[in-house]
Design goal:
The protein has helices spanning 3-22, 26-31, 51-63, and strands at residues 33-40, 48-49, 65-81, 84-97, 102-116, 119-128, 131-132, 137-138. The protein has 144 residues and is of the alpha+beta class. The strands form 2 sheets. A 6-stranded mixed sheet has the order 2-1-6-5-4-3. Strands 7-8 form a two-stranded antiparallel sheet. The longest helix is centred in the N-terminal third of the chain and has 20 residues, at 3-22. The protein is globular, with a radius of gyration of 15 Å. The model has no long low-confidence stretch (mean pLDDT 95).
């Protein structure tokens, strides 16, 4: 398989991720991850290990929304070297929580993928927000 084909496959997987979040499909999001994925998500806890932990946190994230979450990917960069690929992007997430609070935030994300027999699996998922060192607060309202 050529790296160009792999780039197209990873693009399709990111597109499917957007669709799965819109559909609140936590199972799809878990299934595309390696069983031993290491995840550093924006929401607590500090670290998740394994697709089962990530699926549980994802379901809780979805359950917090009365409407949404809306999820759009921007500035996608895809790199592939043989059986390893990475996708780095900014995403905007929005919606209304059950509390009535409106969410509108930008997050940075990097997914590291490994080719396996039946496709690609995420082996490392890292999300972050910039922070203000003087206040210690995350800066979720920054826009690209």
């Amino acid at each position: 398989m050529s790296d160009a084909t792999a780039v197209q496959e990873l693009q399709a997987l990111v597109d499917e991720r957007v669709r799965a979040i819109a559909a609140r499909d936590a199972q799809y999001l878990a299934d595309v991850q390696a069983d031993d994925v290491l995840a550093f998500n924006v929401l607590p806890p500090l670290r998740l290990r394994g697709s089962a932990e990530v699926a549980e946190q994802t379901r809780a994230w979805f359950d917090g929304y009365a409407s949404g979450p809306e999820y759009t990917v921007h500035d996608l960069q895809i790199d592939v070297d043989g059986g390893v690929g990475s996708t780095a992007f900014l995403y905007h997430v929005g919606g209304t929580l059950h509390s009535g609070d409106e969410i509108s935030m930008w997050v940075r994300a990097t997914l590291v993928w490994r080719r396996v027999d039946d496709g690609w699996r995420i082996v490392h998922d890292h999300e972050s927000v910039p922070w203000d060192p003087t206040t210690g607060q995350g800066l979720t309202s920054l826009e690209p």
